Amino acid sequence: MAETVHSNLDVSAAxxxxxxxxxYPVGQRESAVDQVIINANKTPLSAEKRAEILAEPGxxxxxxxxxxxxxxxxxxxxxxxxxxxxxxxxxxxxxxxLHYGQSIFEGLKAYRHADGAIYLFxxxxxxxxxxxxxxxxxxxxxxxxLFIGAIEALLRQDHEWVPEGPEKSLYxxxxxxxxxxxxxxxxSTHVTFALMASPVGAYFPQGVKPVSVWxxxxxxxxxxxxxxxxxxxxxxxxxxxxxxxxxxxxxDQVVWLDAIERKYIEEMGGMNLFFxxxxxxxARVITPKLTGTLLPGVTRDSLLTLAGDLGIPATEETISVAxxxxxxxxxxxxxxxxxxxxxxxxxxxxxxxxxxGSWTIADGQPGEITMKMRQALVDIQTGAAPDVHNWMxxxx
Length: 396
Ligand SMILES: Cc1ncc(COP(=O)(O)O)c(C=O)c1O
Hints:
Elements: H1 7-18, E1 37-38, H2 47-55, E2 66-73, E3 77-78, E4 82-85, H3 96-100, E5 103-105, E6 108-112, E7 118-121, H4 123-136, H5 144-157, E8 169-178, E9 190-200, E10 211-215, H6 233-248, E11 253-257, E12 265-268, E13 272-277, E14 284-288, H7 298-309, E15 314-317, H8 321-329, E16 333-340, E17 344-353, E18 359-360, H9 368-382, E19 392-394
Parallel strand pairs: 1-4, 10-11, 10-17, 14-15
Antiparallel strand pairs: 2-3, 2-4, 2-9, 5-8, 6-7, 6-8, 7-19, 8-9, 11-12, 13-14, 13-16, 16-17, 17-18
Helix pairs in contact: 1-4
The site of pyridoxal-5'-phosphate has 12 residues, from helix 7.
């Protein structure tokens, strides 16, 4: 028997998607932080233990003392968010998210500036991407003020978990999943929004190092009409086998091709790609167009803007594997890099594949434009350069 899709999903989520021009809003800073009920951990980790962790945090290994979570139900909509100890769990074995994958997430960072203040980078852009992912997975969108309010509440409580030091940060992981404990295949009538925080160290503690990439000719990440532009759990589950194949072939990362022709470059693992043509003042950058099968990265969008600031022409285009290989051989492509929240910018040094051969990008070392764009973005995030685009959101 068919079951009804919950009613208040369509209206609000459709409105989010209809506002396509707003994919990267700037400065929408409404916050529901004052609505968060505080039931903080009464036995937080000792200052000593925390200091040990912050000295060498790794990535996603340790979590701060608390999380923020909010429950949504069909009847009541979003309920008041609550800050609770990290160990608090929701749901059992029949969770909709476990069986049918109704699960989305986000990733952004909180940075401690030299004066001790704590800032977020473009949180409103992550909020909107989260809402768009929710729409695609038939989940109720988390309103921007709830999204930002939850982050602010967690940071006010767990501010001591934001590390100091070059390129260290507190990684924030918002998660939304179908938490109904029932086996019906339909949108969950009980949904959980949760936010956790994990301190992270510099991505390249030994200095920026290029990665080698494996072009995935056999496995596809996303097809037109699918979930490629949503940050949903299933996309990552489907990517793991290709990442394993890349590793088997001696490569660090996988590069995805379009699903139809298997010719055009989409993105790399959990990062978007940029190709640099020419050198010095003649350099220009291109990045694959957002076709609906790529994740619209916040870093990608920020770098398109920063390229303009640096006087580097930047365009969104379609680029094929053949073009990548030929333009490297002729020397037209001088640098390639990948970008995302975790590493900011990672140079790509070498390419390998089953069907298209292997080649090196220039001398395989990090290029001048790559490092210049990386520094420009890191400087804004860490407060070393002025925030001319109103991207930084002060929390404390
Ligand atoms: C598949 C994929 N592409 C690109 C990105 C980069 O996005 P952002 O710059 O918003 O971190 C990510 C990381 O979130 C990702 O998982």
